[in-house]
Amino acid sequence: MKRYRAFTAFILIVGALVALGYGLFGPQKATAALLSGLTLASLYFLLGAGLSLIFGLMDVLNFAHGVLFMVGAYVGYTVFGNPRLILNTAPLFLALAVGIIAGSRLAPLIPNRRFIPYLLALAGVGVTLWGIRGFPLRPLVAFEPTTAGGAIPTALAQEPLSRMLLRLGQLALAGLLLGPVAARWGREDRRAAPWRSLALGVGLTLLAVLLLLGRDPLERFLLGLSVDVRFFLALVAGAATGAALGALIETTLIRPFYGRPITQIVLTLGLMFAGAELVKFIWGKEGRPPMAVPSLFAQSCRSPNLLAWLTERCSSIDVLGRAFPTYRLFIIAVGLLILVGVALLLKYSRLGMIVRAGVQDSAMVEALGINVRRVFMAVFALGSALAALGGVVAAPFVGVYPEMGSIFQLQAFIAVVIGGMGSYTGTAVGALVLGLARALGDTLVTTGIALPGMAQALRASPAVARASTVLMMAVVLLVRPAGIFGRKE
Amino acid sequence: MEKTGFPLWLRRHWPGLVILTLMSLFPFLAGLAMGDPAAVPPEIQGVGRVLALAETGRAKFWQGMVIQMFILAVFAMSYDLLLGYTGVISFGHAMFFGTGGYVVGLLVKHAGWSAGAAVGVLLLVALLQSLMVGALSLRVKGVYLAMVTLAFAEFFYILAEATDFRQYTGADDGLHGIYPPPFLSPTDHRTRFYFLALVFFLTMYLAARRLVNSPTGRVMVAIRENEARAAMLGYNTFVYKLVALVAAGVMAALAGALNAFFNLGVTPSVLSVATTIDVLAMTIVGGAGTLTGPVLGAAIVHLLGYWLNRLFGQTWVLLFGVTFILIVVFLPYGIVGTVQARSWRWRAVWRERWRRIKEGRKFPLPS
Amino acid sequence: MAALLEVQDIHTFIGQFHILQGVSLEVPEGSITALLGRNGAGKTTTLKSILGLTPPREGKVIFLGEEIGGRRAYEIAAMGIGYVPEYRAIFTGLTVEENLRIAERRKGDLKRKADFIFTLFPDLKRLYRLPGGQLSGGQQQMLAIARALVPDNRLLLIDEPSEGLAPILIQELMGAIRRLSAEVTVLLVDQNFQMTSRLADRYFMIEDGRTVRSGAMADLLNEPDVIRRYLGAVI
Amino acid sequence: MEPRIVLETRNLRKEFNGLVAVADVSLQVREGELHAIIGPNGAGKTTLFNLISGVLPPTAGKVLLRGRDITGLPPHQIARRGIGRSFQITNLFPNLTVLESVRLAAQARGRRSLYFWAHYRRYREYEERALAIIHQVGLAGREHIPARALPHGDQRKLEIALLLATGPDVLLLDEPTAGMAAGEIPLLTDLIRRLREEGGRTILLVEHKMDVVMNLSDRITVMHQGRILAEGTPAEISADERVQRAYLGEL
Questions:
Q1: Residue B358: which pLDDT band, with cuts at 50, 70 and 90?
Q2: H-assigned helices in A250-371
Q3: Nearest CA in chain D to B209
Q4: Which of A14, A387, A459, D201 has the greatest count of CB atoms below 10 A from its CB?
Q5: Contact A368 C91 (CB under 8 A)
Q6: A386-407: per-residue pLDDT in tens?
Q7: Does the model's pTM come out above 0.80?
Q8: Count of CB atoms situated within 10 Å of the CB of A147
């Protein structure tokens, strides 16, 4: 019955928003606003789904979620437009990872004294700094991303291979030093088969060396690919980076503080801050214009309807006489796809079953012999991947800039609070409500509010609409402190 | 023999008194040690010379550093009233600090009010703001509260940055030219401003200490320890959390106002998450749940920021973020918190031993 | 008869409270052993400590001849310990089938054990597709026990199974526990002394976080004073 | 003369997701009496306490205190109206000392808790009252030990001290002897008896230990599966055949 009431509330709110839109702006503008609303809702959902899943399962509120969204966007953007940066930096990370994997195997050989981990960590950080010292990051980043078939103008930014190989060695050494510390930090005694980590180590080493040796042909190859393939690669790379970072955050900063929620929250808050600074450090303070879109959305024309668009590949489509960018339809589609996909995963996979059970009682799940923490890590990685994917999808829509993480995270928070924390349905609903409200608000403040007795309509910037969603959250909190679909404590 | 009256008071408070004396003498000591003798006309001699020296060179700079520490210390103490004493995790504390700056800024610069009147109105505004924010956000608990307070803070941050109000707030450039009365100018009379900040800090410290040691403060601690149980004793925990939030909000707003006067302006960054992280770092480094902790934390964090900036330039913000994470990981109870827990346990052990000895039982002492 | 499980002088803290202050016990293979004691004596904590859900800070837990103290709960459980917690912690949002399937350690566990489970608890077959939350208290209890039977467990830890059940259901439950004990060793905690005294062969008595007595159940029944003193039950 | 009814529940009902924990319980507690509630685990005793003390809202029914409806009031208001409650599971302020905890409870009774400008030491009466109660429950000499460092039995005593310090006229005691060593129980029963005789307080007690219940109570209610099975004097109850079967056993 309660569920029923929540559902009615949801229908009423959405209905009211739609009616308000049509009443204020007439069908033309209102439909466009609603479609924009769906676009925003889709992005909010991609961010909020991970937040909500992670919170529901492990009671961790990840304040760094927006950073993952932003990192996804930046990585996707870079893979798409400037593969040289990736080809020159990825091997460094791989070398470090290989070192850590090998080093964690050596952990039992290290004498068990208290000061030794600190010493090793210090040495490891020192060698890392030594290894990246003087790396020509600035010139590598400086390139403007190119469009289809373009080339990066100069070869000067790259360091000679010999220097890069030396760096790989240095970082692998740093990893070796850090490995034992990492193994102890995770407090997980690794009894997995040694061949596994051996295979992983060899594989990663090969990959690193191959990337580096083949960096020039690879770059030419990547830039020669069609925009569509590169866009797809950007999506995959962004999501994969998100997943990897999520897993890393979970193992290093969340897991050791299980049962100390305040520490966890404060840590993710610190990460949110440091992450934004790191992005600024690597890519600079200035943002970049929206990324190029796949060819399906690229022709500069306006299609009269959906069918025509599929053949004409226009950048916009006619909606009741107004142009609407087709790429936004893609964003909506991705959101819907993920919404359904994750719902199916939760409902029918064994992982989903464990997650649903774990949301209720994770200790009992563990008592059944299931490694709950590995499930936690998987969910954290999944949530992070969704956020990062959202970032890549958003890049052609809003561009990339260092504040995008906190801006979208704030809206995702509000969506999750409105929908009800820890509820998957609630997140979708909250995202939808907030997206529609935001789009209407944006239309309202930019076209102006004409109050009776005023000579001129009152106009404002979209920032005001963005701020006003906080007021909306306040109203929901007053009426239902746990959100529309929230569980009452 | 129990001593009473003044000697007892002295015995209990001597460390504080020593620190207070040092703080009062600081401008003069700094003047003597670091002042620029060349900048002071030779005809000024004696006490006047010491005073003039304090307004020169590095002495003036370090006074500024300490003034900033006093301001941040008050800000951190106010945050600790929430986090350390009441157990409320708010991530929107920058909101109050920024409100302080912007309210006095708007009133002094655009309405032409005197600084005193502006601060008076600020008190009222901060009271109303914290009441409203508290009434809304305290309806939820734990991480929800953290999220909601962050959203409220971002609300004000966005408004301060919004181009719509540029003519009032200066948008992303900030609001500049917030002058205190000329005789307290932080540029011309830094030593006077130093003493203003010192008096402000002391007043706030004593007020906060009185609050945490009042019957109300005891209930706040009880809420931190076990909120449900406090309610079962008959306390309306919402009211006490609201009192804590209002006290913290007003204190932070006053600190923000003084900060605006000292820097002669505010920028939207005082309302940003970075400010909340700063204050969180100060509280956690020093030790949440103590008043001296945040003060110490403010001093350490401010100095750390200064040194990191000097050593690494632009990158310092990133390094500060990393340092913050390391501090949280390795010092979860802070400096004062850790020391106190140690000495407290130690005292408890000895008290128990003493009791057993007095009772004349022949227990083997626990080793 | 070798002990399947041996607990040696464990001390467990929950938060800052010292709950277990020296619990020792032995569970011989093939028996039903009862853990007795009043509310708050530390029985549930003992079970959780064995399983590693509240890891003991001191002392040893030995299962199948291996020291398992300090291992993670899932590793301990996967060695062959099934846990039926207090308050029937079944997953209310999952169907009966999913509640059983989630306990599988190897694919096909449920298929192999289905017959055994349905002979013990015929009701569950009828309710197979229903969400756990819609089951009655007794049915939930049956499901919780059935869940622990899905994988090949050597030992079951059963906590307060009779709590809140009508007498007739308790009879049924006793029958089920007796029958399943032919296949698996049981360590049983229950306030219902009528029930435990009829089921168990041996007992360990806990008071204030310490083991205070142990022995054969038959001997305990001849000591009404002891029962009254430690359990407060009227015989 | 018929004694006054202090606390009354009318058709009180609580369901959790369709599971009925307390089913239409109507209970009348008379002034100055010690009224015990017994029943097997899961019979709904603790839930009943939670409903009376406002921790849980009832699904249906009413709670009346001296004839006034207090159903659904928040716990702190119910506490201020004079219903004090102890908990089955130790529920203390872990880092506060015994004296600090009890003083807080004593302060809860007064009206000065919002005096944020004064030092708490100024109100000696709270401290004196706290010390007296600490003495009364037998915790003298342990005033400065934090709650978490106390042995279990002392924690139970502190629980009772907290309860007494708020000065309630109706006490809800939820298994006060839970987890106490057998030797300590007589001290506690003595204390409960004294409380009643001195203060004329009304006590509602949930307890498993039958000899404690039989010794102390004026009236016993037996609950089973959320319902009231029987009610009467200790003698009546121990003679009741249904009670024997459902709870006391047939051996």
A1: low
A2: 261-283, 306-312, 326-348, 350-360, 362-367
A3: D119
A4: A387
A5: no
A6: 999 999 999 999 999 998 998 8
A7: yes
A8: 14
Task: Report the CATH number of the C30-53+72-231 domain.
Answer: 3.40.50.300
Render pLDDT for C116-172 as a digit per residue (tens, 0 to 9): 888 888 888 888 888 887 787 778 888 999 999 899 888 999 988 877 676 677 888
**Whether A137 contacts chain B with CB within 8 A:** no
Q: Scan residues 82-111 of B and list those with Cβ closer than 8 Å to A.
A: 89, 91
Does position A81 have pLDDT exceeding 60, yes or no?
yes
Contact C77 A366 (CB under 8 A): yes
Interface confidence: ipTM more than 0.85:
no
Q: Of A257, A283, A307, which residue is a domain's last?
A: A257
| B172 CB within 8 Å of a chain A CB | no
What are the boundaries of each domain within chain C? Answer: 30-53+72-231
Q: Do B243 and D114 touch (CB under 8 A)?
A: yes
What are the DSSP calls for A111-166, one per residue? ---SHHHHHHHHHHHHHHHHHHTT--HHHHHHSPPP-TT---S-STTSPPHHHHHH
**B162 vs A414: CB contact, 8 Å cut-off?**
no
A167 occurs within a structural domain:
yes
pLDDT at A329: 92
Higher-pLDDT residue of B340 and B81 is: B81
Collect all residues of chain C within an 8 Å Cβ-Cβ radius of residue D211. 228, 232
The tally of domains found in chain A comes to 2
* A216 shares a domain with A335: no
Query: Residue A39 in contact with residue A331, Cβ under 8 Å?
Result: yes
Q: Which residues have C-beta within 8 Å of that of residue A457, sequence separation ≥ 6?
A: A447, A448, A449, A450
DSSP string, A55-67: HHHH----TTHHH
Can you tell me which residue has the tokens 């949440």?
B288
**C202-207: strand order across its sheet:** C81-84, C155-159, C185-189, C32-36, C202-207, C210-216
Same domain, A53 and A87: no
CB contact under 8 A, A467 and B159: yes
Which of B233, B239, B243 has its CB closest to that of D162? Answer: B233
CB within 8 Å: C147 and A368: yes
pLDDT tens-digit readout, C159-197: 888 776 766 778 888 888 988 888 899 999 887 787 888
Q: What is the mean pLDDT of chain B?
A: 87
Nearest-CA residue of chain B relative to D126?
B215
Mean pLDDT of A40-58: 92
State mean pLDDT over A41-63: 90
